[in-house]
Amino acid sequence: MSKRVEIYDTTLRDGTQSEDVNFTIADKVKIAEALYDFGVRYIEGGWPGSNPRDIGFFKAVKGSSVPDDHIAAFGSTRRAKRTCDNDENIQALLEVEVPNLTIFGKTWDLHVTEALKIELDQNLELINDSLSYLKTKVDRAFYDAEHFFDGYKANKEYALRTLKAAMDAKADCIILCDTNGGTMPAEIGSIIDEVRKVTGDYPLGIHCHNDSDCAVANSVIAVKHGIVHVQGTVNGYGERCGNANIMSVIPNLQLKYGYECVPVDKLKNLRTVSRYINELGNLKHNIHQPYVGRSAFAHKGGVHVSAIMKNSSTYEHIEPELVGNRQRVLLSDLSGKSNLIYKAKDFGLDVDSSDPKINAVVERLKELENKGFQFEGAEASFELLMRKTMGTFTPFFDSISYRVIDEMNTNMGSPLAEATVMIKVDGEQEHTAAAGNGPVNAIDNAIRKALLNFYPNLKDMELVDYKVRILTTGTGTEAVTRVLVESKDTDGTWGTVGVATNIVDASYQALMDSIEYKLLKDKEKE
Amino acid sequence: MSKRVEIYDTTLRDGTQSEDVNFTIADKVKIAEALYDFGVRYIEGGWPGSNPRDIGFFKAVKGSSVPDDHIAAFGSTRRAKRTCDNDENIQALLEVEVPNLTIFGKTWDLHVTEALKIELDQNLELINDSLSYLKTKVDRAFYDAEHFFDGYKANKEYALRTLKAAMDAKADCIILCDTNGGTMPAEIGSIIDEVRKVTGDYPLGIHCHNDSDCAVANSVIAVKHGIVHVQGTVNGYGERCGNANIMSVIPNLQLKYGYECVPVDKLKNLRTVSRYINELGNLKHNIHQPYVGRSAFAHKGGVHVSAIMKNSSTYEHIEPELVGNRQRVLLSDLSGKSNLIYKAKDFGLDVDSSDPKINAVVERLKELENKGFQFEGAEASFELLMRKTMGTFTPFFDSISYRVIDEMNTNMGSPLAEATVMIKVDGEQEHTAAAGNGPVNAIDNAIRKALLNFYPNLKDMELVDYKVRILTTGTGTEAVTRVLVESKDTDGTWGTVGVATNIVDASYQALMDSIEYKLLKDKEKE
Fold first, then answer.
1. In chain A, which among 44-73 make CB contacts under 8 A with chain B?
2. Which ranges carry the Pyruvate carboxyltransferase domain (chains A, B) (predicted)?
3. pLDDT tens-digit profile of B303-332?
4. What are the domain boundaries of chain B?
5. Which CATH superfamily includes the segment(s) A398-525?
6. For residue A338, what is the DSSP state?
């Protein structure tokens, strides 16, 4: 019999409190579908009483693939001067017609007297009355004990009485909230132990915020102390420093302790779910994110690399495939020939460690790294370098010349960047010009224009990121420049690099590699 | 009597194992200086035996403001077939001539037999012998017990014997390492309790990795269980998912538990240190980062906002000022004015809080921050902005126009960058041209050439650093470029900023500010 923990996702409600998170209703429905497919038990869609836009979601999700039973709505206890029947907030909750409702109430005596400005006993009535009412209307009513841990530390006896009020109303689960995110992992377990002396086997949940960088740890500790329901958000979105990241909580509980949070065969979709929801939110992927990040199983140090090639458990806490991720070996001045062979195999190149061409690649690599090249994040350039050095690359075009002019004067509203480019494909010459937002964008536009006649597939390729690093300090604008370009098409993303004293030249190299890589991959597909 | 915990920073060694972290030697020295100023006890500079580039750092740091006593170097136990006297790694450690050395050794029996391929007892000798040897040569020798927690779980008895070998050699501290980052917060305390039954009061340290999203929590728990030395990195840089983030560990221990990690009056520099080191590494600031992030004390929800305006502790776990951060209310940002007045006084401007011009500066600042301007590291631009908005700045010259051409073709050995610039000083026009290594350098050369006739003091000014960051604002895909320029003369250094879609334009703004600031300061001196 495997132990179960209920995952209650609040990405669509608490997650959208984040400064940089903003989903359309259509996005929210897609996210709900992705979470349901992934096996998340409850998906909180919004706060109908506080945000009218959320009402649109509850309508829209009814036409989706997500069964009603998995959708929850959020609100608060009724106001002191109203009955539940005429409290707008409570009624707004019922109007969205979902079977699961969560309301929050005050635990901290200070908030009752200072924010609500009511008597302590009256707050107990609000909690009990609101939950009792909702219990007659829907399948499940959950209770979020706001500021539970701060309230407990301020007035333990009163905090426990608020929980008792929710228990008496037969709330389906009582969730202990670390609303301000200030609770330390060394105290959370002992507080929960004390609570359970009073609540016994009553189902308890946990809702953590990450203000002390401990939200995931606190959630895991809570489960080890008997909590059966965990609230959190995908990728830890949320106000301030975010909520507990369920992309970390789920694999921690499932892989380290054997709890079932999502069906066993679904865990391998973890990385895909994380990336997909980042994409919908137009948020950048954190390469270092535990379990799902691109670097989560990436090895750079030579000691580590030679060890993982013998036995991957030596420097990996889990098998990356369990969460849909994979092992990567990075190229850097710390490593050597064994990394290269690993990479070559990754690229599908048939390479023997005794092949003298491998030494030529090592030499070329050292030479470029001394110049300031860096192939982490630019694996496409590295693959091209490897193929070119080993003689397995046929050029798609020749670059003849470029020229770019940037101009600004007091008669102009904004500066002008204009580029001309000359290239040759199979002896045929193309000479074009284009404008752009800046010199690099202008050259990029001109090259594509020149090549598009020969390679129409370049149309579906776009630049997604462009990074510039000045390498030698102390020489100001004469310094060596490294440019990293990230491109994407419908199949995925790839990175390329260029290094030169001239930033335009460095950018040109990275752009050229990016285009050559795209053409190479498309040719391989044929 | 306040309890103390030693902070041992490994940003410059373990931090550089991160896929996207790459510091020049000059950057590393600046980081060491910043960490020393912040009050960090030990700064690990690198691994001389593994990375020849690190040796350069140890040479360079001797000329810095950081006393030797705070610098540490990292290495491993001697190899099985060598004595310490002829082991390259051990000797490389001694050659960098620092008083603190840390070596790692194997705890996990599997690694001893599989990776080192030696007998278990022989590994104990390596540990004891290497540490005993180093103890005769330097002030302090620390021992990193690699894979301690995994090793302990695999073979408790052997893991404890490895610690005993280090204790017998009188290592100054024994650091328990969660090398793979897989240890759960619910088990770390009990394992340390078991260890301490054997080690008693022997000083123990902790070194956590973040693969399970628990590195900060595990470090804090370890301290509550008697650990006195914490290793980690600034902003959690490090291989895979990073190391324990000391920007979170320090305030957790200091503000929540009253441990002294850095001097009490230094904690308010936390945010500045975090940002500064991100800037040096050209790494993006994580707005949600606990304690130091721009959003860490930002409130969006209406309930929260009205509550914090009454009492900030209602939704903030600490006072943001304690770590140099500030409360922000999104959409209706009312704060900032007092900061501005503080800054104005800093610049020697006589400003009254009731002066309506202060509001104009607040408005202008908001407008620029929305465009992507950032004035950390660019205070010279901020001072110019303030003076210009308040009407206390007299221009030294007018910029009329610039044009820059970058050209490359197959007949040229390297690309050509040529700039023309037109400026006016007191009605007198100057039109010059200059070449450069790239478009920005060419413009820089041309402007100076044009101005030197009027302001010969520009001769002793030079650009020392130039950083480019591509920002993507909002939901759009249009890239905005931010350029930070650092300049110096005989009196000191100053930073300026420019933001535009066109990189040349952004650079031009930063260069202009840099020159104007120099002319302003020289005039003030007269």
1. 50
2. 5-268
3. 666 676 667 777 899 999 999 998 876 543
4. 6-280, 297-334
5. Alpha-isopropylmalate synthase LeuA, regulatory domain (3.30.160.270)
6. H
